[in-house]
Amino acid sequence: MMSAAVLPTYARQDLVFERGEGVWLETTAGTRYLDFSGGVAVSALGHAHPHLVSALTEQAGKLWHTSNLFRIAGQERLAERLCAATFADRVFFCNSGAEALEGAIKLARRYHYVKGAPERFRIITFEGAFHGRTLATVSAGNQKKHLEGFGPKVDGFDHVAEFDIAPVEAAITHETAGILIEPIQGEGGIKVVPAQFLQQLRNICDKHSLLLMLDEVQCGMGRTGKLFAHEGAGITPDIMSIAKGLGGGFPIGAFLATEKTAVGMTAGTHGSTFGGNPLAMAVGNAVLDIVLSPGFLDEVARKGLLLKQRLAEIKDRYPHVIEDVRGQGLMVGLKLKVPLGDMITAVTREHLLAVPAGDSVMRLLPALIVSDDEIGEAVQRIGRAAATWNGKSA
User: Fold this and answer.
1) How far is CA 201 from the centre of its chain?
2) What string of H, E and C letters represents the secondary structure of 278-340?
3) How far apart are CA 95 and CA 283, in angstroms?
C-alpha cells in the first residue's frame, strides 16, 4: 500500500525494489524480476553498473556541488565529448528531459530575437508527441489528458497531423520559429518517424530559415543502435534535447545546439542551480565511456534486431493478442489487440517488467547491455503471458 504522504499522481504497481544488477531487479521480499522497462529508458547500462558506481562513488568522496558560478571540469569534458560525437558546438546541462525541452524552446525563440525577428516564436509540433510535464511542454504535446485542469495552454505551439508534410508547410507563418519532433515517439506508441519525413523537415527548415529541433530524450544515447536516432536519416538538427540514458539513472538533461543557433544565449539568459553538477557529470562521462566504446552500438543494433525477430515469432503464434511489432534497436513496442493494462499485469505475473505507451502499446526498453539469453528469457515470458488469452502453450 502506497504511503498517503506521497502525492498520488502515479498508478503505481505494488512492488518495492531493493537492489538491482544488470537487467534484473529484486524486491524487498527477495523476488527477482527481469527488467525490460529500464526505468522508462533511463537505466541504459542496467542497474549498478560497476563503471558508473565507481565514477559516482569516487566523485561523491570529493565534491558534490559548487553551482555554475564556477567552472566545473567534468561538465566541460562531457560537453566537449558530446560535441565531438554530434552535430553540436554548444551544450547546456540541466536535470531532466522536460527542462531540456524548455531550454530548447527558449533557445529557438532567443535565436530569432537576436536576429531581429522577435515575432518568430511559434513552434510546430506533432500529434501524439510527448515533450514533458511542464506547462510549456504539455502545451507543446497538446494531449488533452495532460492539459486538463491546468488553465489555458501556453501560447506558441501549432499542432499538425503526424508525419504528413503538407500540413507542416501549411502551418508555417511569419511567426514560425522552428519545428519540434521526436524521431521516435515513445509515449505516443513507439512510432518511428520515416527517414524521408525527417529529411523533408530539414529541407523545409532550410528553405524558411526555421530551426529543426529534435527531442531525443527517450530515443537517444544509443537506444536505437545509433548514438542518436536521427543519424539513421542522415540529417542534423539545429537543436537537440537529451536526458534519460545520458545519466544511466542519475538525473541529467541537456540541450545541444550549433554555434549559429546558440549565438543569443549569453550570460544571464538561462540557468540551472543543479544542472551540470560534479556528481551528474561524473556519471555522464562514465556512461559515454561505455556507449562510445568500439563495437558497443553495433551490438545494440544486433540485439535489437534479435529482439524484434523473436517477438515476431510470438506475434505469429498469438495473432489475436499482438497486432504489430515496431521500433528500432532496443526501443520496441508491441501493438496489442487485448487491453494494455491486462497485458502489463500478465507479464508482471511472469516477473517481467514492461512499460505502457499510449492506449494499446507495450514498450520494451531493456538495458543496452542485455544479453541474448536475457532477450530469449523475456520473449518466453511474453509468450506465456500472451497464452493466457487463447489457451495455447508458450
Assistant:
1) 20
2) HHHHHHHHHHHHHHCCCCHHHHHHHHHHHHHHHHHHHHHHCCCCEEEEEEECCEEEEEECCCH
3) 13
Considering only the top CATH level, what class is 51-291?
alpha beta
State which amino acid sits at residue 211: L
Coil, helix or strand at residue 53: helix
Cell of 368: 543496452
Counts of helices then strands in the chain (DSSP H, E): 12, 17
Give yes or no for residue 391 having a pLDDT over 70: no
Alpha helices in the chain (DSSP H): 38-41, 50-60, 73-85, 97-114, 135-141, 144-147, 165-171, 195-208, 278-291, 296-317, 340-349, 372-387
Separation CA 385–CA 393 (nearest Å): 10
**CATH superfamily of the 297-385 domain:** Aspartate Aminotransferase, domain 1 (3.90.1150.10)
Tens digits of per-residue pLDDT, 152-173?
999 999 999 979 999 999 999 9
For residue range 201-214, list pLDDT tens digits in order. 999 999 999 999 99
Question: For the chain, which residues make up each domain, given as ranges?
Answer: 51-291, 297-385
Of residues 272, 290, 253, 314, the one with CA closest to residue 367 = 290
Same fold, 51-291 and 297-385: no
Total residues found in the chain within this entry:
394
